[in-house]
Amino acid sequence: GESVGLHLPTLSVQEGDNSIINCAYSNSASDYFIWYKQESGKGPQFIIDIRSNMDKRQGQRVTVLLNKTVKHLSLQIAATQPGDSAVYFCAEGHRSSNTGKLIFGQGTTLQVKP
Amino acid sequence: SQTIHQWPATLVQPVGSPLSLECTVEGTSNPNLYWYRQAAGRGLQLLFYSVGIGQISSEVPQNLSASRPQDRQFILSSKKLLLSDSGFYLCAWRESGSGANVLTFGAGSRLTVL
């Protein structure tokens, strides 16, 4: 079936380094993608989103890149901080859908070493 | 501003007992509502969604049911819990209609079935 998946289950980086979290999706009809951050024991929090008519979108210290040719999504975090330690999920959806359903990947754990 | 509440936050139940998890949203009208389940170390699986009062769509066959008795209230239930029902249950909402599908999640309810 169709799914959203992540390449690496755990990513360990040094504080101050840049982090790159990858995601592969298989539904070519998806036109909207979101990254969420989930801290231990809490609900996921929205980080950044991107529509399929864009290749790149930047936020505060975060950048999302979308490569529709290979169905790949990435989240780049600049100058990673200890507070960035969490599980990161990508999700895909359809902007024209009235249901608003999102399909989530399995998640990548980001560990920031001091 | 809109807020979403889930309760109880944690729950330990014996196998075969009933379940009721509640979710309410404040500060909005006619939201789309969602129940997701997250098994330990896994991604989020969509269980149910609702686009209006009394309208429930089930995504996966299971031992659970959902109801929406009021516009901003979403309830997840079971008549007899199974061990496999253990997990972290997340309620989410978004504005109704099509468009960008950012879901806002509650803090979650952790269910342990013994």
> CATH H-level name of chain A... which superfamily?
Immunoglobulins
Question: Main interface pair?
Answer: A-B, 28 and 29 residues
- At the fold tier of CATH, the topology name of chain B is Immunoglobulin-like
- Binned strand content of chain B: over 45%
Q: Considering DSSP H and I runs of 4 or more, what fraction of the residues of chain B is helical?
A: under 10%
CATH class of chain B: Mainly Beta
Layout of helices and strands:
The complex is a heterodimer of chains A (114) and B (114).
Chain A: E1 4-5, E2 10-14, E3 19-25, E4 32-38, E5 45-51, E6 56-58, E7 62-67, E8 72-77, E9 86-93, E10 103-104, E11 108-113
Parallel strand pairs in A: 2-11
Antiparallel strand pairs in A: 1-3, 3-8, 4-5, 4-9, 6-7, 7-8, 9-10, 9-11
Chain B: E1 3-7, E2 10-13, E3 19-26, E4 32-38, E5 44-52, E6 55-58, E7 65-70, E8 73-78, E9 87-94, E10 104-105, E11 109-113
Parallel strand pairs in B: 2-11
Antiparallel strand pairs in B: 1-3, 3-8, 4-5, 4-9, 5-6, 7-8, 9-10, 9-11
How would you explain this protein's 3D organization?
The complex is a heterodimer of chains A (114) and B (114). Chain A has strands at residues 4-5, 10-14, 19-25, 32-38, 45-51, 56-58, 62-67, 72-77, 86-93, 103-104, 108-113. With 114 residues, chain A is mainly β. In chain A, the strands form 2 sheets. In chain A, strands 2, 4, 5, 9, 10 and 11 form a 6-stranded mixed beta sheet that branches. The termini of chain A are far apart. Helix content of chain B is 0%, strand content 56%. Chain B is mainly β. In chain B, the strands form 2 sheets. In chain B, strands 2, 4, 5, 6, 9, 10 and 11 form a 7-stranded mixed beta sheet that branches. Chain B has a 4-stranded antiparallel beta sheet with strand order 1-3-8-7, with no helix packed on it. Chain B has a single domain (3-97, 105-113), classed as Immunoglobulin-like, CATH 2.60.40.10. Chain B contains no helices and 11 strands. The mean pLDDT of chain B is 93. The interface between A and B is medium-sized, with 28 and 29 residues.
